[in-house]
Amino acid sequence: MRFHLVASFRLSADAGDAEEEIADFFDDGASEILQKGASQGQGSKIVGWELSGDKIRLDIRSDRYVRAHDAILRLRKPLATILGKKYRVGIRGLDVEKFEIEVESKKTIPHKIPYVKEIEHQEGVLKLILDVGEADGQIGEPELKNNVPDRIVNLLDDKLQEGYGGKAEHWELLWESAPRVPKFEKDPTKELIDRGWIKHGSSRGQWIYGPQGAHLFRVLERIVMEDIIEPLGYQEMIFPKLVTWDVWKKSGHAQGVYPEIYYVCPPKTRDPVHWEEVMDYYKVTGEVPTKLIKEKIGEPIGGMCYAQCPPSWVFFQGGTLPNDSLPVKIFDRSGTSHRYESGGIHGIERVDEFHRIEIVWMGTSEQVKEEAEKLKDRYHKIFEDVLELHWRMAWVTPWFMAQEGKAGLSELEEAGTVDYEALLPYNGDWLEFQNLSNNGYKYPKGFNVKAQSGEQLWSGCSGVGLERWASAFLAQKGLDVENWPEAFRERFGEMPEGIRFL
């Protein structure tokens, strides 16, 4: 990997009197500064420089060790010392004139990269020509200081290693239940519609659950409460369902959540005058002028709840937890989650709006692992003895570890995700209907939550999706109560009559 940077230091005055001393610095002292931390022969080199009045222009080339953009920032302080102490000249700023990155690659990158103006691919070399300047989206002094070039390089490495779209998820079977003869082999959603238990909502991937469907959900929720939440001592909290960018930046979701979230844009103002033409348009046409509305709302402040636990961490952010309060065990069941499933929506199992109970725990690494095992035992008992499913467990790479290049069971002994999958008899596919994640220190570190002892906190989370549980159960057992397991029938009680239409 090679870097080529041309940039100039802006000075407070003409520095012509200091030219000889500057030349001595670039000939001698600068070399040690630009190669410090790199092996012999590696690092940055000044291949040309020029003093022109109140500007010092530098041409720097480097490999991936002491990269050119780091090198020029290293030069600022010693140059300021030379100019200021004797010549009373200060350094006002840094202007970037040219910045190129080259890497050997057999393939090109067809997708636009932030701050990259042009991409060339010739004779096995991929060249990124960065857009430089002081405008938004250009590389200037603030971007050099904020390590933007390094993030571009990391993104480039990811794309070249795995191809655009992210790393493949690792999957490894842990356990599978004994096969069970299904009592039903139809698509349960179609049957639910035909019997009037559910109807499509007005939005895509959204369902309205009638009394029968709602009762089924409440029974599943009660099983979770009575068999998991209460015995294990979890406390209920209410998590926000509008999640702002600062939360997703700390949780890591800001790396790639954009294709799947429902965005939230506030109005620019509540002043009725601002909205008068929108209201008038509707009064005249009977249509909502969405294009006009787009002009009157602000930029997205975040999105609807995508993954349920991240906004809860704001409650703990910057706090120190006493040792005797660990592990912290909480859950939320206060509202819907929203995820744009694109072409993947199907029935009630793949929806844009879904209902979930989110279970979260935090403590030492040993406490988090121990709590995960307790939850696994509880899930096993429910899926085997209450729902009597044909199901299996698999060890998978969670989204954040996949982005960091980690995969495989041996690397995930300490942290990772277990997916629970149920067989769908009507199509032979396996549906992921439950998960359990040991997230390591990712969230406590991201939100700066500490333990009194000083030990690094860990956390875990497990989302119980009621649509997924219902889909797995009904796909195997059907909608006729007499075919349901006895333990579940006892919990279910009487079937509601439902809504009748003429």
Q: Characterize the main sheet.
A: 9 strands, mixed
Shape, per Cα inertia axes: elongated
Instruction: Give Rg in angstroms.
Output: 29 Å
Low-confidence stretches: 163-168, 407-412
**Structure summary, number of beta strands:** 22
Distance between the termini: 73 Å
**Structural class estimated from helices and strands:** alpha+beta
Mean pLDDT: 92
Q: How many H/I helices?
A: 15
Proportion of residues in extended strands = 25-35%
Summarize the model shown.
This protein has 502 residues and is of the alpha+beta class.
What does this structure look like?
This protein is of the alpha+beta class and 502 residues long. The protein is 33% helix and 26% strand. The strands form five sheets. Strands 7, 10, 15, 16, 17, 18, 19, 20 and 22 form a nine-stranded mixed sheet that branches. The chain has a six-stranded antiparallel sheet with strand order 2-3-1-4-6-5, with helices on one face. Helix 7 crosses helix 11 and helix 7 (211-232) packs across helix 14 (466-477).
Task: Name some characteristics of this structure.
alpha+beta; 9-stranded mixed sheet; 26% strand; 502 residues; 22 strands; 33% helix
Topology (SSEs and partners):
Elements: E1 2-11, H1 19-27, H2 29-35, E2 44-51, E3 55-62, H3 68-87, E4 91-104, E5 116-122, E6 125-130, H4 141-145, H5 148-162, E7 171-176, H6 188-194, E8 198-200, E9 207-209, H7 211-232, E10 235-236, E11 242-244, H8 245-251, E12 263-264, H9 272-285, H10 290-296, E13 302-304, E14 320-321, E15 328-332, E16 336-338, E17 353-363, H11 365-386, E18 391-396, H12 399-403, E19 416-423, E20 430-438, H13 442-446, E21 450-451, E22 458-465, H14 466-477, H15 486-492
Parallel strand pairs: 10-15, 14-21
Antiparallel strand pairs: 1-3, 1-4, 2-3, 4-6, 5-6, 7-18, 8-9, 11-13, 12-13, 15-17, 16-17, 17-22, 18-19, 19-20, 20-22
